[in-house]
Design goal:
Layout: E1 17-21, E2 24-28, H1 31-46, H2 57-68, H3 74-84, H4 100-108, H5 115-134, H6 163-171, H7 177-186, H8 190-195, H9 198-201, E3 202-203, E4 208-211, E5 214-218, E6 221-225, E7 234-237, H10 240-246, H11 264-282, H12 290-303, H13 308-315, H14 321-327, H15 332-349
Antiparallel strand pairs: 1-2, 3-4, 4-7, 5-6
Helix pairs in contact: 7-10, 7-12
Length: about 350
């Protein structure tokens, strides 16, 4: 009887060899290692000590989250859980069964979403399927294929506030008014503003606002943490527009209705109340987001000719990429100003 021809495996791009049995993949750094794992699985299966197939994606995700994401904050954990809802079309499939068409179907869910949300989803799915490859659930990660990448998504969603909105902020009374003015004229992030204690962090004699802490909301409660980056620890000049507003003020910069440090829900209610007050004063709906204020501050710095290194320091950025990519708008007045400089240079050269 002729001898059975030995099966040969192809080395994959990740350097591993894979063989298959009943829909389950077995990986090894050599062919023999992959075959040995398959034979061991067959032995355990005969003894009733192994499951017949790998888990389907929907069953595996909770286990993966527990193993690989248990150390993240509750907010981050919930964000991941929400992003995994987009995998519903493939939740009943095994990892090896997912096709490029399936991946493209997943990305259709994100049409109209922001670039940052799509980026977070892609990194999450890549990580999940990379783990599946390492566990031998599948040979390749379909989310890495160049033929199944998501659309870019919307960007630049933050905006500069209008002159009318700036005037409304100055003229409309509200307990959030001072906090909004500081975010607008000091460029604070929302979490940094929530952490500001006026008695501790405002030094009018020196003319600086100390940013030393930030607040992260977990289970609706404010948790004090370090700023977003090491560069986030900084001193920001208190410009004259703020000095008089801050003089004689005490307590939290953005307080709850009872004067305490605002929780997540207290801030949301307060911000909604403030938008209602601005809308009533304007006679039409007004909608401003916290980051629009920071966005406006940085744009104002660049329009005023503030040096990049100084703008980076006041904004709490470690490098200039964010300022150049997001905040450094080429506005019509800047185009006119630069054109005028060229005209003046040409005149002096002629």
């Amino acid at each position: 009887m002729p001898r059975a021809k030995k099966q040969h495996l192809k080395r994959q791009k990740n350097g591993q060899f894979y063989c298959k049995f009943k829909g389950k993949m077995f990986a090894g750094s050599t062919e023999d290692e992959a075959f040995a794992k398959r034979e061991e699985y067959k032995r355990l299966l005969q003894l009733g000590l192994a499951a017949e197939r790998d888990p389907v994606i929907g069953e595996y995700i909770p286990r993966w989250m527990k193993l690989y994401k248990s150390g993240v904050t509750s907010k981050c954990y919930n964000d991941y859980a929400n992003l995994f809802e987009a995998l519903a079309p493939i939740a009943g499939k095994h990892f090896q069964e997912v096709t490029l068409d399936d991946v493209r179907q997943v990305w259709l869910h994100f049409n109209g979403y922001s670039e940052s949300t799509i980026h977070r989803a892609r990194m999450l799915y890549l990580s999940l399927f990379d783990t599946a490859v390492e566990n031998g659930f599948c040979v390749k990660n379909p989310f890495r294929s160049k033929h199944a990448q998501p659309a870019r998504g919307t960007s630049g969603t933050h905006r500069i506030i209008t002159d009318e909105e700036r005037e409304l902020i100055h003229s409309t009374p509200h307990r959030f008014r001072l906090g909004v003015l500081v975010m607008l004229y000091a460029g604070l992030r929302k979490g940094e503003a929530l952490a500001i204690d006026l008695d501790r962090d405002v030094d009018l004699a020196a003319g600086v606002l100390h940013v030393r802490q930030a607040v992260r909301i977990e289970s609706n409660q404010p948790i004090t943490v370090s700023p977003k980056t090491a560069a986030g620890v900084r001193d920001i000049p208190i410009f004259p527009v703020l000095a008089d507003e801050l003089r004689g003020q005490h307590g939290w910069l953005i307080p709850s209705a009872s004067g305490k440090q605002a929780s997540g829900s207290a801030f949301a209610r307060g911000w909604a109340s403030y938008m209602t007050a601005l809308s009533r004063a304007a006679g039409h709906p007004v909608s401003i987001r916290c980051h629009d204020l920071r966005h406006s501050f940085c744009t104002m710095l660049r329009k005023s000719g503030v040096e990049m290194k100084v703008a980076m320091m006041w904004m709490g950025h470690a490098d200039e990429k964010m300022i150049l990519r997001v905040y450094d708008h080429v506005t019509p007045d800047r185009i006119e100003e630069n054109a005028q400089r060229v005209i003046e240079r040409m005149k002096s050269a002629s």
